[in-house]
Amino acid sequence: MVERLDGLEDKLRDAARAAGAKAAKKRLRRIDPVFSGSGLDPQDVKVMFDPVEYIAFRGLNGGEVREVLLIAEKPCSSPQEKG
Questions:
Q1: Residues 24, 29, 35, 41, CA torsion sign
Q2: Is this structure's pTM higher than 0.70?
Q3: Max CA-CA distance within the chain?
Q4: What's the alpha-carbon Rg for the chain, to the nearest Å?
Q5: Which distant-in-sequence residues (6+ apart) come within 8 Å of 53 by Cβ?
Q6: For every one of its 83 residues, what pLDDT tens digit does the chain have, with 9 covering 90 and above?
Q7: DSSP state letters, 15-71
Q8: Backbone angles phi, psi at 46, to 5 degrees
Q9: At residue 14, what are phi and psi to the nearest 5 degrees?
């Protein structure tokens, strides 16, 4: 009986964790459509600033990095482009 309740508790915790993660991603999409709209998990993105603003490790949150992306805004001037 106790084992059965422990198993049920584990399943409920996993379901709650998954629902929370889904809700958090949905909220992040509203706040930051740049990363969320691109298929990147915001938790896979790290801030670097200058000259590369962000580095994204696609798949990091899932446990297996499949791709590394360097993300920067387009240069606004010739000196910035040479940077």
A1: positive
A2: no
A3: 72
A4: 19
A5: 47, 71, 72, 73
A6: 777 877 888 899 999 988 887 887 777 667 666 666 667 777 777 777 777 777 888 888 788 888 888 877 766 767 666 65
A7: HHHHHHHHHHHHHHHHH-HHHHTTT--GGGEEE--SS--EEEEETGGGT---EEEEE
A8: -120, 145
A9: -60, -40
Token readout for 34 is 């740049």
Question: Tokens standing for 73?
Answer: 């805004």
Kindly report the number of other CB atoms within 10 A of residue 43's CB atom. Answer: 15
- Paired tokens of 60: 């990091």
The total number of residues written for the chain in this structure: 83
Amino acid at 9: E
